[in-house]
Prior knowledge:
- By secondary structure, chain A is of the alpha+beta class.
- Chain A has helices at 7-19, 32-37, 44-49, 80-94, 150-161, 165-173, 196-199, 203-237, 244-271, 278-282, and strands at 24-27, 73-77, 105-110, 118-121, 126-129, 137-142, 181-185, 191-195.
- In chain A, strand 4 and strand 5 (126-129) form a beta hairpin.
- The A-B interface holds A 17, 20-29, 31-34, 37, 75, 77-82, 84-85, 88-89, 113, 132-133, 136-137, 161-162 and B 1, 3, 19, 21-22, 29, 31-32, 66-67, 70-73, 76-88, 90-91.
Amino acid sequence: MATLVSDPVRYVAIEWEKAYPSAVLSGIVPDKVHLENGGFHCSIEDLIRFGNRNDYSNQRPDDKGWNPKYGAAIDMSMSPADMKLCAKRIEAVFNDPTDPRRVFINAINGWDGVGSADRWDFVGRVKGKSSSDHTWHDHLEIKRRYLLAWLAAYAIVSMFRGETKQQYIESEGDEMNWNDEITGVFPNGVMYKYPVKDVMAGGNYYANLAAREAAAVRAEIAALTKVVQSLVDIIKTGGGDVNVPALLEGMKKTLEEHRMSVRADTRDAVADLGEGGAEQVRAED
Amino acid sequence: MNDFKGNCHGGPIDGQEAVSRFPKGFLLVDKPADHCWIYEWDAEKESFYVRQQEPMISLTEGPKNRYRAAEEGNYDVLAAPWVGDEDGDAG
């Protein structure tokens, strides 16, 4: 059966086009040459059908055997200016190991405007080179595991729109229902459903949660600082004296104890999610 | 994969070199203006020739829409190089 394109992947293609004035879709399902040579544009069924079962796009744990009827790549042609802008947005996510949007992407070929074309390998965390045709079109590879996941589609679109990590977390975090399910198909054809919280229980979810906790701590610090300043003002107005350095040292110690406690709670919370590797997470620090 | 690379004759990118991944040529699309040009590949001359000097309407629906070109393996789809923020600083 020919490669299918899932609704979430089609959504990514449509929204990616909208995000850049010049962007035009230039490839999604595999053509004859792709079918013969393999790659993420092909479904796993088509890889097998054309003798490419061991293709590079069917090797990594988040690719091998997952959702075998669906293609996992999008090609987007853009002007040089938009290629550079897109590269900037890609690199913002690529260079931040705490960005939760990273988890859904295998790699992207594109061009940052300097020298030859680039390949950002999100799994290997390596920026390398790619073929010269990628100086005028980007090639996105979505991990096959997430081809049916709207969560993945929204995350990837967020990156292409140039949203910051914080904007993405704030747009998804409060509304995201961690018990929502991501569906897919195992290699043996059995349908599966995983709660989002399990899927995200890797390093990137840890970073998501940690980022939100850090934001809460920063807010508390700001509030406490104002209270202390008010107290100092009152005391000085009444003719008293305040040892400000000692006061600040005491505050710092209290806040550090609070931070350590928050980190311990965060580790426990992530460990409870299962897929992140409970023992590894608990063993940190 | 083999690319098809050569100079363009006619149309808005006359004299410029272009590359197509597919054997019949490419569709050049100016999305903001809704315009497109078809450049046909001439294998003998290793060059691209514009089919029609004046731009056509870039269709997104119907039997001749540009998404069909993206799905088939005959013509590549290229973005007009003059479109977009020249400084690349936005966002």
